[in-house]
Amino acid sequence: MLNPPPRLRQSSPNIFFMMNEHFMNSRKAIVFDLDGTLVDTLPDLMGSLNKALAECGLPGVEATVLLDSLHGGLGATAGAALRALTADMTLHPELSKRYEQLYTDQLCESSLPFSGVVDFLEMLKRAGVSMGVCTNKLEQQAKQLLTHLDLIQYFDAVVGADTYPYSKPHPLPLLKLLEQLGAEPSASAFVGDSVVDAHTALNAQVPLLYYTQGYGGSCKTEWKAIEFDCYSSLLSHPAQT
Q: Which of 64, 67, 47, 37 is nearest to 110 (CA)?
């Protein structure tokens, strides 16, 4: 079994790489989650969800409802909203469909990369590290968003919830993506922000970098992770090939 790197509760530009420089420099590929990891998509997701709820004759929900279910995909979020409102669950198919339509139309309105993301991707690109995105967004939605934000240029492959028969936390999407990148799990890393991402890394036996300022809060899982709270902490010592 792969021995994952140790967990750090806090990160700083110096401490992170003093303890983990060898780990980072030995990565041949790095795969990222999208929502809450690379890009702050919450405003567009919330706007679309509450519009869809209104069209179904229901009140809006608070952001906590979305955050607790976001990484399961739009369908999971629609279900969570109905449960939070104690609404008729038979509305789920209609709500999910309309939510997806509305979100596809406005997914690029307010979403922006988190601070430091572009600099980190540039560093990895210069170092020759292969990169991919593994998300529970639909593949086309993910590519549309990445293209709009001019991030698609950094990634060799993008895998969404509908790319393969299984989505995260099943290991298949991540492992298939690493195959495309030509990298072994033990020589790679997965960057995520949720329990779903942590379980994906565990199931695929891929070391985890956990972004604590995303949507998932602290990482509570048996799979140890290097936790970081800002992308600038990953820039202190550029990875070398």
A: 47
pLDDT tens string 44-76? 999 999 999 999 999 999 999 998 888 788 999
| Residue 150 designated active-site | no
Superfamily of domain 13-40+111-234: HAD superfamily/HAD-like (3.40.50.1000)
Per residue in 154-210, pLDDT (tens digit) is 999 999 999 999 999 999 999 999 999 999 999 999 999 999 999 999 999 999 999
Q: Are 191 and 37 in contact (CB under 8 A)?
A: yes
Which residue ranges make up each domain of the chain?
13-40+111-234, 42-106
Within 10 angstroms of residue 55's Cβ, the number of other Cβ atoms is 13
Q: String of b and e for 89-108 (b: at least 16 CB within 10 Å)?
A: eebbeebbebbbebbeeebb
Among candidate residues 33, 40, 193, 197, the one labeled active-site is 33
